[in-house]
Amino acid sequence: MKHNEQEIKVLKDEINQMWRLVxxxxxxxxxxxxxxxVELAFEIVSMEKxxxxxxxxxxxxxxxYIALYSPVAIDLRLVLSIMKISxxxxxxxxxxxxxxxxxxxxxxxxxxxxLVEELEIEKMFDILINMITDSFVALNSENTKTSxxxxxxxxxxxxxxxxxxxxxxxxxxxxxxxxxCGLKLMLLIRKxxxxxxxxxxxxEEIVFYIEAKVLKHKGKMEQIE
Length: 225
Prior knowledge:
Layout: H1 3-35, H2 38-69, H3 73-105, H4 113-118, H5 121-141, H6 147-174, H7 179-211, H8 218-224
């Protein structure tokens, strides 16, 4: 194996480790929120430092690889994609950390379970975990066939997010004493919606690496044309 191939393997191993860590953060934030598990929430917060460290290390290693080997074509696309994916994973980790801190605060731990069901928070979590897991598989299999399906899941997340406004409005009109917790719940759902956006960004980077196609802003460009 050539030295530059070994470096590529190291980069792939590092992004995979970071990816698994962020998937774990998301899975644990789901459990912590739905079960009001404060201990688990603290565990998620402690994981955040490791995620941040991975992002800094991967970014530095990618920059060094480009400087040393001047990669072109697919090798360059891979390194650029890994760098951008690491940044995006770090942001997803930040949102998982934010969800965990919501649980740790405890001031809204007695939210109506029926409301949580109506807001479809558990369904949102399941979709997001599927998105980030499927994109992990797509990169490692170098297969973009599932990219459309993953991007479609983001639309499901957006639909749930937009429906939550009306559902929360109706609930808070009947329960005005819960306005503070309602607002905090809205911010939490917004974090989840942003995770979906970031998962879509990861898929776009994978397609860029494998197919040399740029999906970013594609819808906007089609509207302009």
